[in-house]
Design a protein that fits this description.
Blueprint (H helix, E strand, L loop, with lengths): L1 H34 L13 E2 L3 H14 L10 H14 L5 E5 L7 H7 L4 E6 L6 E3 L2 E5 L12 E7 L8 H11 E13 L10 E2 L2 E2 L5 H13 L2 E3 L12 E3 L4 E12 L19
Parallel strand pairs: 2-3, 2-6, 3-5, 6-7
Antiparallel strand pairs: 1-12, 4-5, 7-12, 8-9, 10-12, 11-12
């Protein structure tokens, strides 16, 4: 009985926390839209990068604050989120159709794009129990490996810190390639460390915890190429500091973000790696 009561209290706390986060985000977005001020473009050209030093995510956070954007509550996540924002702003127009695959209600990328004038914004997550809207953003239940969308639906897709949580990599890249338009981009970030880390016996969100290693990333990129998705630039897979600390599981690691482009039929694209991170696994 006590365990059930504790679970109920925890669940209620999470629901209230989520609601408060929604209200704060909606307030910030609405306030900025009403002000009508055009936002300065970010400078975050690390769409294919490893987070190596703490100063890098702190610099990204400083930039988010200076731009007047709502801050991701997990502060280190502003690093890959602003990289995705910079990539999409550079490669698309405001008329683009954008999907955040696996994003949570508190994810910031769609809210940021809304502030930059994008109006065809979508988010899917298995945790959503119904369709709901926040301004021009439509959220709905959905499996990122088997979506309801038509072929060639999106100009860009983001998937930030999702695929390490029990996602089948081949199904993921196959589905993302299917729903991306030719020339569209997929921005993916993952929990990462160059050498393998021991996560045996650790679980989160109902699945075993996984932190990608260098060899696993190379294998994933090989699968992506087989699905017609190619890196947009060099990717150096060296890691340095363990920036992220997952206190509940006593794990330390960092983040990796990589960006893939769907090559139109009839075109070929060479593999792109730097000498430090390069080669096939």
């Amino acid at each position: 009985m006590l365990d059930r009561q504790v679970f109920q209290l925890t669940d209620n706390f999470r629901k209230w926390k989520r609601r408060i986060q929604d209200l704060l985000f909606d307030y910030e977005v609405g306030r900025r839209i009403l002000r009508g001020r055009s936002l300065e473009r970010p400078v975050a050209p690390w769409e294919n990068s490893v987070l190596r030093k703490a100063g890098e995510w702190k610099g990204a956070l400083d930039q988010v604050e200076r731009l007047g954007l709502p801050i991701h509550l997990e502060l280190t996540k502003n690093w890959d989120s602003i990289a995705a924002l910079d990539c999409i702003l550079a490669r698309t127009t405001r008329e683009a159709r954008i999907l955040d695959a696996g994003g949570e209600r508190y994810s910031v990328i769609l809210l940021w794009l809304c502030l930059y004038g994008y109006r065809d914004l979508h988010g899917i997550n298995l945790s959503f129990d119904s369709v709901f809207r926040r301004g021009p953003i439509t959220y709905e239940p959905g499996d990122i490996t088997a979506t309801r969308y038509e072929w060639d639906s999106f100009d860009a897709v983001t998937c930030l810190s999702v695929i390490e949580h029990g996602v089948d990599i081949w199904k993921y890249f196959r589905e993302m390639s299917r729903i991306l338009k030719p020339g569209g981009v997929l921005v993916t970030s993952v929990d990462y460390y160059e050498s393998p880390l021991d996560t045996a016996g650790k679980t989160a969100y109902g699945v075993p915890v996984h932190i990608f290693s260098r060899e696993e990333v190379l294998e994933a990129l090989s699968v992506a190429r087989d699905c017609g998705l190619h890196l947009t630039g060099p990717l150096d897979l060296r890691s340095e500091e363990k920036i992220v600390h997952w206190g509940g599981l006593d794990l330390e690691y960092t983040f990796l973000v990589f960006t893939l482009i769907k090559i139109p039929p009839g075109r070929t694209e060479p593999d792109i790696f730097t000498s430090q991170g390069g080669g096939r696994g």
